[in-house]
């Protein structure tokens, strides 16, 4: 075992997810011996490990003080790369950058991280669901599938379903030669919660607007509920998954904006800038939502907001659909859980299903840390 | 990229699963360039790749003829190891042994494979569910968690749930510091089928013995149904999973035989040697099975044969349990699917669920091939 074993980890973004990542890395001894935190950066400050003063966190309180007291203002990303290359050289260890932000600018910089030999792990959906040019630049520069290479790797498990094994399962299916026929799922925890409350096998007796109001007040939605109800988060996840399916190469969305997406926001509210006003006016449309729900119920069905990738039809869409009361999306789903059904040539009679919490700092961090472990296994 | 990139694969056992493994390895170009088959062995013959005549399979018909026409009788395992070490040296590539048998003698040899530097991938449950001494010898010699090592690796995804992400999910949960509180699941495809038919949310109107008879006649059971109804297959899977949970270290079963297991075989039939006689006499006990089912139904429940690992109670058992009609094991399960619920500190409100076909040659082979890919990523 080399003294330089393991890898370095540079963490950009130390909010809820970033804090959980640090907490997991420092509290599990099998991780702290293999994954060495060498940099922390938030919007204000950067904290770097140096030979004379290596970072060594033992508790969660430590690093927050160290970062805010750091004399170094937040480095521009090209400067951060130079510092990380220096650390890579000094330590003799491979370095991975963890992007815990949801920042487009950080995402746009992934090709440069990779060009500099730095691996990338992230729950940030922007790079994988945005412009296809950025995505292609990342795919070109990553070495995940290059046998015998020691180049940089990219892992993105937490971009869909947080810690749930969704990306890895899709990659294993595709990588072993299975053919995906359809992926269908409830990909938004917020919309899962709303429809699990609104449209139940026994009908449901709550008003749509009241469920949204409660969800907003309890932090289940973004500050502006339209950010969830527009379906764009689901569209992003569909863009991410569809790009991992080789058969879709010709039909790939140029970005999540080209995924046909059914917005649940009533047209008259589309331009309401304030989340509060949005929630206040939503009751005007309760009759419409109720009508949809009743129509589904009369057919023995429930409403679910789903993402569908139908490979055979070449169709990708985020939309409100009806499911029979006995369907797992109706009968088995509850709370704000995600559920994903992989229909494939091998899993043809019944799909492979993965279900569970698809959001939250700890489970998102788990996906990130598991990805880092995989990089340590390959480059440590 | 080195010319020696990728790894060598030596395949022991070329029945249904082995044939599917070979088919996947040879038909997917991204696999055939990284996973090089260098040996095939069944109970009669061994076929080895040599420098002058390297194996190169392009179709599934090829290798069967080549193997049966091979002049080499099946090698004893120590001799196979010597040949594989020679091939490893000649090719400059790491070598993994795939054991597709269910043979205890092959399983008992894993420590020797590892000692010789050969990785092991297998759907064979014997080594991981058998005597704890054998298991410990394997754990000691594998390098999976040793940073910076280039030693041999062990992967066993297909030992539970075939290609379903069960072992990998458990390893990721544990590896990132989550605490498993309970694992509960339907682990036997055969018993899943039997109880999904027998005990439905609406009661079920089929006789237990008739379902077993139909299942036997259609190949859903082992030739002797007691091999499924005894619960020992479930006990093996529980032994395998429990050994991956650090908190259970003190309460670990010495082997699957020490897992408390409720046999569904009526005591008077326990010693019936013939599967045919067993099925013929089973109707004598239909009233008993019916009584259990009715009792469950009267409580709004169904019967499911499950495996439970309750970490908090330190209890591991394979048994017939009742589940509310709305529980995913009742409402969402169908056919011969497996379903596994991981209850953890992070997934505490609702479990992480994985569901799908848990048996069959193609999905079992998929788990094997995905494991081989992981070894190629780390040692290729």
TrEMBL record, chains A, B:
Cofactors: a metal cation
Protein family according to the UniProt entry: Belongs to the homoserine dehydrogenase family.
Residues that coordinate or bind NADP(+): 13-18
InterPro entries in UniProt: Asp/hSer_DH_NAD-bd (IPR005106), Bifunc_Aspkin/hSer_DH (IPR011147), HDH_cat (IPR001342), HDH_short (IPR022697), NAD(P)-bd_dom_sf (IPR036291)
Annotated pathway: Amino-acid biosynthesis; L-methionine biosynthesis via de novo pathway; L-homoserine from L-aspartate: step 3/3; Amino-acid biosynthesis; L-threonine biosynthesis; L-threonine from L-aspartate: step 3/5
Binding site for L-homoserine: 222
Species in which this protein is naturally found: Melanopsichium pennsylvanicum
Residue span(s) of domain Homoserine dehydrogenase catalytic: 165-372
EC annotation from Swiss-Prot or TrEMBL: 1.1.1.3
GO molecular function: homoserine dehydrogenase activity; NADP binding
SUPFAM superfamilies: Glyceraldehyde-3-phosphate dehydrogenase-like, C-terminal domain, NAD(P)-binding Rossmann-fold domains
Any single biological process term in GO: threonine biosynthetic process
Function: Catalyzes the conversion of L-aspartate-beta-semialdehyde (L-Asa) to L-homoserine (L-Hse), the third step in the biosynthesis of amino acids that derive from aspartate (the aspartate family of amino acids), including methioinine and threonine, the latter of which is a precursor to isoleucine; production of homoserine leads to a branch-point in the pathway as it can either be O-phosphorylated for processing to threonine, or O-acylated for processing to methionine.
Catalytic residues (UniProt): 237 (proton donor)
Residues the record lists as binding NADPH: 101, 125
Keyword Magnesium: no
Aspartate/homoserine dehydrogenase NAD-binding domain ranges (all copies): 13-143
PANTHER family per the UniProt record, alphabetical: HOMOSERINE DEHYDROGENASE, PTHR43070
Record's protein name: Homoserine dehydrogenase
């Amino acid at each position: 075992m080399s003294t330089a074993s393991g890898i370095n980890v540079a963490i950009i973004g130390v909010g809820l997810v970033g804090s959980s990542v640090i907490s997991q890395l420092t509290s599990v001894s099998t991780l702290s011996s293999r994954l060495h935190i060498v940099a922390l950066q938030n919007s204000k400050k950067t904290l770097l490990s140096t030979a004379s003063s290596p970072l060594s966190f033992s508790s969660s309180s430590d690093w927050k003080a160290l970062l805010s007291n750091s004399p170094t203002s937040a480095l521009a990303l090209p400067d951060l790369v130079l510092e990380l290359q220096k650390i890579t050289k000094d330590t003799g260890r491979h370095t991975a950058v963890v992007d815990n932000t949801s920042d487009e600018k950080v995402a746009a910089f992934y090709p440069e991280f990779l060009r500099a030999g730095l691996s990338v792990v992230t729950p940030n959906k922007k790079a994988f669901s945005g412009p296809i040019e950025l995505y292609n630049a990342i795919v070109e520069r990553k070495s995940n599938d290059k046998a015998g290479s020691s180049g940089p790797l990219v892992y993105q498990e937490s971009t869909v379903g947080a810690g749930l094994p969704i990306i890895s399962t899709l990659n294993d299916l595709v990588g072993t030669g299975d053919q995906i026929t359809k992926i269908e799922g409830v990909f938004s925890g917020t919309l899962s919660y709303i429809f699990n409350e609104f449209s139940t096998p026994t009908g449901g007796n709550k008003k749509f607007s009241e469920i949204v109001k409660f969800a907003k007040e309890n932090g289940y939605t973004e500050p502006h509920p339209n950010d969830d109800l527009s379906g764009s988060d689901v569209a992003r996840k569909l863009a991410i998954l569809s790009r991992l399916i080789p058969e879709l190469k010709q039909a790939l969305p140029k970005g999540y904006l080209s995924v046909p997406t059914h917005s649940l926001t009533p047209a008259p509210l589309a331009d309401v800038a304030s989340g509060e006003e949005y929630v206040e006016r939503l009751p005007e449309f309760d009759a419409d939502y109720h009508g949809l729900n009743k129509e589904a119920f009369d057919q023995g069905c429930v409403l679910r907001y789903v993402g569908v990738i139908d490979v055979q039809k070449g169709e990708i869409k985020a939309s409100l659909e009806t499911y029979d009361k006995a369907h797992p999306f109706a009968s088995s789903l509850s709370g704000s859980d995600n559920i994903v059904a992989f229909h494939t040539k091998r899993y043809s009679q019944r799909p492979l299903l993965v279900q569970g919490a698809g959001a939250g700092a700890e489970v998102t961090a788990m996906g990130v840390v598991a990805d880092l472990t995989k990089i340590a296994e390959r480059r440590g």
